[in-house]
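Hi support team,

I've been running sequence recovery on a batch of backbones for a student project. Most finish fine, but this one hangs at about 90% for roughly twenty minutes before it completes. I'm not sure whether the input is malformed or the queue is just slow. I've pasted the structure tokens below so you can try to reproduce it. Let me know if you need the job ID as well.

Thanks,
M.K.
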């Protein structure tokens, strides 16, 4: 397979990238080069080209005018000229889209082989890819890296206040509509950030968290030169360190960290603050946003009189970064990322691999990282006091610090480039392949995910092999997780790809497209559950019910409100009573003694499974369902061939309404197989003539 990447922004070169040299020379270049390196290691990949813009700028160097540059044996950078010869910031690149597209088409037509797919990075590159697709028919996938709508909201701007930002948002929406597949780095990007765009179709977005080469950070030694560059600012250089490492742009929100530190005498007493904010000779020579950010940081340091307690070196090289983390680790420090929104959070992976606990923004990719690895605390980046409280909480609790530091060992396994590239190439290959019509299924199996299908590594491996031998059996999942969370956990566990995903406790249904890669939300089911549902009224009715605590914004859906409870006696009855007093008819699902979901009255796993059954034209006795907990009751109750896996909870096996269910001896996925075999054997026995 020949993959063509398109990336116009920043100063892209094969080696020694000067991150922070311009405002647009950031993490997306690191992501792209690492992805190319990982892709090149796959024998199925024949050639990789990164097409970028050629420009001349004496300040930035001559490298960016070179036509070709090798990255490795399989990969190269091709720089194509556009209408404007000089360096341009991303806000001005829209003027170069047409000329770059024409140059790219000429390049492709001059090659012996056409790329199988184009991967566009940022919306300007997607605009180029759309032109190429229209002309040459080459499909494209899109990675946004960061979104203009998120930036506009973070800066508190109204539409029309920033023409360049509005133009970027329009280009992103067009890219979302045109791309064959959109690759997101996190659930927050897939489910929250993209949701505000008119072209939003969640099933065409797939979460593929970047990998990272973390070996050079784990156990990296300190460096005397790096230590000295920090120590020269500090009165007590051996104190613990609060470390931040980010480009000096407004969205990275470094000023909030300085304010949090400046407003907390206790935090100042506990640790020094060390900020690496790009590289500079004179901040006045930086691009506008970067210069203003550095100016604000220096002003805040002066306002709070933090001299001797804050280090802010002007220079560091990419090869210095492991030693910077090692400096903080050697002093029992922590790493803080206070960005208004962090699309992924590569520095969080690096810092965690180096053994540093995290305090990270709760907006973006850090949600996934901290949830998966348990290596820190998420905070509201707009609450300076919350940043200070979290940092002080970790620094003042040795046991907590040690636990978060040790959890960094999980990071390397979770965010591996080899695993990432294998999933990435499988997605690209399925897009490039011709579509095949799916055979009409004879039976349908729907499983809960957590503690039913997954929870036992050997069990899921056995299930995958068994599933391949069931050609007439359609497979789906029904879960309390969101759609993207469901796909993410299944892919992490190497589970078979489901043909139908019933998510958010039955309030959403997605069907796998014929390409075997993307999904489409079922509009008929959405119309069904929307009738008589008022999310805002339900939320207001429950606002004063004691013992309810809303789950994170990421867990709230258009047709689902989610809360935590402490398992208080009678909590479900009080919730139902509050809804009834407000004249609302809703489904109330309580599971594991802790999770409470409020849904439209017509939404449940059971009604959703039956909807899918009817859509496929199957009889009731052609459907199997499997579950383990309270949020599976409705599904298990309404389907005759119900399977309760051996590791069930919430007293399912003793419920009178579930007497018809088969309680498996095996746990997790093996219990699912056992249940299907049981019901099939029972059906065959019933069909045998009496002897």
């Amino acid at each position: 397979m020949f993959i063509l990447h398109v990336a116009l922004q920043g100063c892209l070169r094969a080696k020694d990238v000067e991150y922070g040299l311009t405002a647009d020379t950031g993490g997306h270049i690191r992501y792209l080069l690492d992805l190319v390196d990982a892709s090149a290691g796959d024998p199925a990949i024949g050639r990789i080209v990164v097409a970028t813009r050629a420009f001349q700028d004496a300040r930035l160097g001559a490298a960016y005018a070179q036509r070709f540059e090798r990255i490795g044996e399989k990969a190269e950078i091709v720089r194509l000229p556009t209408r404007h010869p000089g360096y341009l910031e991303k806000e001005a690149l829209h003027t170069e889209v047409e000329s770059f597209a024409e140059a790219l088409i000429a390049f492709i037509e001059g090659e012996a082989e056409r790329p199988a797919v184009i991967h566009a990075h940022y919306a300007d590159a997607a605009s180029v890819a759309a032109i190429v697709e229209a002309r040459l028919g080459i499909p494209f996938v899109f990675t946004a890296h960061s979104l203009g709508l998120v930036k506009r909201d973070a800066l508190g701007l109204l539409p029309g206040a920033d023409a360049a930002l509005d133009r970027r948002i329009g280009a992103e929406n067009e890219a979302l509509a045109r791309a064959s597949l959109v690759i997101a780095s996190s659930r927050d990007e897939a489910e929250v950030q993209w949701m505000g765009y008119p072209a939003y179709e969640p099933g065409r977005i797939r979460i593929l968290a970047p990998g990272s080469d973390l070996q050079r950070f784990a156990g990296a030694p300190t460096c005397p030169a790096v230590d000295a560059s920090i120590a020269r600012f500090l009165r007590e250089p051996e104190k613990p360190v609060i470390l931040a490492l980010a480009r000096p742009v407004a969205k990275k929100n470094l000023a909030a960290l300085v304010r949090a530190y400046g407003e907390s005498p206790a935090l100042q007493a506990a640790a020094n603050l060390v900020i690496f904010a790009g590289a500079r000779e004179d901040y006045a020579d930086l691009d506008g946003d970067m210069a203003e950010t550095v100016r604000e940081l220096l002003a805040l340091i002066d306002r709070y009189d933090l001299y001797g307690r804050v280090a802010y070196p002007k220079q560091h090289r990419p090869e210095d970064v492991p030693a910077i983390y090692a400096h903080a680790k050697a002093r029992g420090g922590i790493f803080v990322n206070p960005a208004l929104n962090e699309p992924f959070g590569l520095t969080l992976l690096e810092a965690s691999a180096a053994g540093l606990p995290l305090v990270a923004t709760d907006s973006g990719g850090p949600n996934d990282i901290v949830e998966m690895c348990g290596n820190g605390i998420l905070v509201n980046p707009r609450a300076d006091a919350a940043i200070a409280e979290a940092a002080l909480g970790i620094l003042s609790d040795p046991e907590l610090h040690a636990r978060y530091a040790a959890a960094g060992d999980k990071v390397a396994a979770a965010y591996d480039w080899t695993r990432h590239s294998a999933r990435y190439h499988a997605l690209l290959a399925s897009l490039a392949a011709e579509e095949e019509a799916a055979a009409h299924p004879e039976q349908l199996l729907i499983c809960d995910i957590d503690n039913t299908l997954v929870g036992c590594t050997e069990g899921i491996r056995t299930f995958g092999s068994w599933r391949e031998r069931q050609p007439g059996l359609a497979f789906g999942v029904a879960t309390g997780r969101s759609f993207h969370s469901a796909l993410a956990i299944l892919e992490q566990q190497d589970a078979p790809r489901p043909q139908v995903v019933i998510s958010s406790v039955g309030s959403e249904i997605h069907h796998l497209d014929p390409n075997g890669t993307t999904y489409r939300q079922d509009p008929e089911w959405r119309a069904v559950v929307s009738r008589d549902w008022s999310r805002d009224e339900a939320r207001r009715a429950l606002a004063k019910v004691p013992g309810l605590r809303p789950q994170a914004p990421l867990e709230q859906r258009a047709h689902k409100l989610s809360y935590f409870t402490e398992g208080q006696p009678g909590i479900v009855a009080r919730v139902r009573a509050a809804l009834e007093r407000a004249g609302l008819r809703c489904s109330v699902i309580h599971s594991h003694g802790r999770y409470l979901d409020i849904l439209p009255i017509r939404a449940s796993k059971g009604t959703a499974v039956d909807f899918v059954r009817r859509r496929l034209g199957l009889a009731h006795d052609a459907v199997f369902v499997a579950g383990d907990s309270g949020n599976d009751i409705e599904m298990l109750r309404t389907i005759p061939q119900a399977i309760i896996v051996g590791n069930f909870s919430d007293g399912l096996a003793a419920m009178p309404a579930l007497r018809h269910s088969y309680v498996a001896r095996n746990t997790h996925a093996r219990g699912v197989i056992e249940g299907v075999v049981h019901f099939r054997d029972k059906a065959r026995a019933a069909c045998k003539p009496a002897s």
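--
Follow-up from support: It reproduced on our side and the slowdown came from queue contention, not your input. The longest strand covers residues 47-53. No action needed from you.
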